[in-house]
Amino acid sequence: MNDYRQRLGKFGEKIAENYLQSYGYAVVGRNFKTYYGEIDLIAQKGDEILFCEVKARTSSDYGYPEEAVDRRKISHLLSAAGSYLEWKQLDKFWRLDIISVEINKTDKKAKIKWFKNVSEDFCV
Fold first, then answer.
1. 1: pLDDT confidence band, cut at 50, 70 and 90?
2. pTM exceeding the 0.85 threshold for the entire prediction
3. I want to staple 122 with a disulfide (CB 3.0 to 4.6 A). Which of 6, 47, 69, 118 is the partner?
């Protein structure tokens, strides 16, 4: 991955983290790596655990950010979430969400879309 895409990804994750915090979630993990892939953000609110995939774009030339999350990616994220729960020995309600961040390069403002409780049937 090139440096620009890494910086954009980290910037998108920071925006998503702040967004989640504004809804009362505490981020308890970042970039959790497993055999199945990486979970961008892990957040908690009460007894609920949220596994979050963050996609950021500065242009819709190649589609909207959320369109980059396909059935295969979701399957891997669900497996990664299971690995995290097993590793932490947690038996709590959890879900997988996608946060899409569209960043306007001119005014540096972000448009955020939050897709909650996605499954392998997710499509936009």
1. low
2. yes
3. 118
Token pair 């819709």: residue: 60
What's the token pair of residue 76? 């891997």
Question: Would the pLDDT of 15 be above 90?
Answer: yes
CB 80 within 8 A of CB 87: no
What whole-number distance in Å separates Cα of residue 32 and Cα of residue 11?
Answer: 17
Sheet (strand 48-57) strand order: 26-34, 37-45, 48-57, 94-103, 110-115
CATH code 3.30.870.10 for 3-115: no
The residue to which tokens 């409780």 are assigned: 117
- Locate the domains of the chain by residue range: 3-115
